[in-house]
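Name: Thiol-disulfide isomerase or thioredoxin
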Amino acid sequence: MKMRFLQKPMLVMLLLPVAWSCDKKEKADYAILSGQLSGKKLPEQIQLLKGRDVKFEVKLDDSGNFADTLYIDTPGYYVMKINDNRIPVYIAQGDNLEMKADLEPDDFYETLSVRGDGAENIRYLLRRDSIQRSQNKDQEAFYLLEEDAFKKTVRHQQKIMDSLVATSGLPEDFAALEKKGNFYSYAGYLQRYPMYHKYYAKKDSLSLSEDFDAELSDIDYENEEDYNHIPSYASLVFNRFNERVGDVYKKMKEEGGEEGRDLYMRASREVMDTYPKGRLKDDIIANHIYYLSPSTDDPEELYNYLLAGTTYPDTREKINEKYDKIKTLVKGKPSPVFEGYENYDGGTTSLADLKGKYVYIDVWATWCGPCKAEIPHLQKVEEDYKDKNIHFLSVSIDREKDRDAWKTMIAEKDMGGIQVLADNAFNSKFVQDYGIEGIPTFILIDPEGNIVSADAPRPSDKNLRKLFDELL
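Structure predicted for Thiol-disulfide isomerase or thioredoxin:
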């Protein structure tokens, strides 16, 4: 089965107006985010995220001031994104928050201040995150702990977090969510321990006490209420879903199924079908829109399957958007293009410059493990087909700040072919036009600039050489 890094998916302040009716104070259905950011690299906007989805965008003026009204249906957790800083926040209707921060210092969080109604929740979350960042900094050493020491460590950490909740003067409903979330975080560690311990200890198997994860057996993994309100529960649910899919996938392989993404999608569908309709199932489905691609055996059938399982318009919109996009990426359609990408060897390169030969494109990044694993295979393919009518083009989606890392890796790994840096990382138009949601992604274009495959075999796949031998 192919491995890819997914795109891979903010602070908030609120003011609350007060409405009076029949002499009774009613709670507003919105909050207002306001404040000021200082520094040389001010963003154009502050984003509030739920998962990968941008729920709110708050514009800044030239002086870094901002103020906006946020209409929210229910209280909930968000991530506030300010440049590369991500801040956990909890927003309830009627909150009145004001934020200030300086983007210049190395420790952005040291300059961050929040005040107003609801500010105690955000200040608590910042303290919580600071403690959590200080825990388990050495992930390898943490998961290499033997069973008893590991459980003792994570149980102690849960007690520390519960104590923080109890002493922070939080509203009762928010405190209850946080304490429940602490348990789910603890459960998540137990859930991940077998896989991570085997990986770091380089073991093929692991024998654990019968009651090691007994607490997990009482968890309801289809609890819509907790899923909608507790982030650590959502993480637990998705991990459990993946475990179940892995078990089904393994069984299907043992029964003669051919290893690969089609078999994995079959296993996923079998597990997905066991979930009742709701937000949880919609989000599981949304995570599988990735598999709706030009290389899918029957895109229309998968499109109809995903659509039939949804409840919410936003999920249907994502499915429709992806399906409409892949219909433009079938074999023979003109390829999306790019212009003026920085070339490692100097100057710039546009896709049009490469017309007249086939172009095999590797979309990758220096931070992507599966991408780096393909480099030796790509170098061998390049060597074997260097005299054929084909260009080998590597398009890095590293961010601007990682340009030096991009150049260094090319030099250190002696990477060949044509090396270019995309103009806006994952948000580059070329990347978006191809509907790329995970890397590495490989694309093959013919000498006229038309698509041969928008999801070509990767260099380690023997089918790539078979394809090249048919065409070249």
